[in-house]
Amino acid sequence: MPELSCQELIRFLDDYVDDTQPAELRAEFERHLEICPDCVDYLKTYRDTISLARGACAEDPSAPPPDDIPDELIQIILRSRPAG
């Protein structure tokens, strides 16, 4: 299998994180991660995003947002929600 590019790594990131890739492709991912610090950083932020989203969904929806979330971000999110 030819060496994986950054773009290819991103395309298959879900399968890598879910550990559903064939062993050969997973080995290519890991080889790429050994030489590409940008993809290592991207993978970390991807995993962090998944973790934060899961945590947010587990919370009480009526609870106030955490204090460390900027108000501007909260307002942007609220404006993007469909009117109901």
Distance linking N and C termini: 50 Å
Unreliable segments of 5+ consecutive residues: none
CATH topology: Arc Repressor Mutant, subunit A
- Tally of helical segments: 5
The CATH class turns out to be: Mainly Alpha
Report on this structure.
This protein is mostly helical and 84 residues long. The chain has one domain: Arc Repressor Mutant, subunit A (Orthogonal Bundle), CATH 1.10.10. The radius of gyration is 17 Å and the shape is elongated. The mean pLDDT is 85.
Q: How are the elements arranged and paired?
A:
Blueprint: H1 6-11, H2 13-18, H3 23-35, H4 37-58, H5 71-80
Question: Could you give a quick summary of the protein structure above?
Answer:
With 84 residues, the protein is mainly alpha-helical. The protein is 68% helix and 0% strand. It has a single domain (6-80), classed as Orthogonal Bundle (Arc Repressor Mutant, subunit A).
Structural descriptors:
mainly alpha, 84 residues, elongated
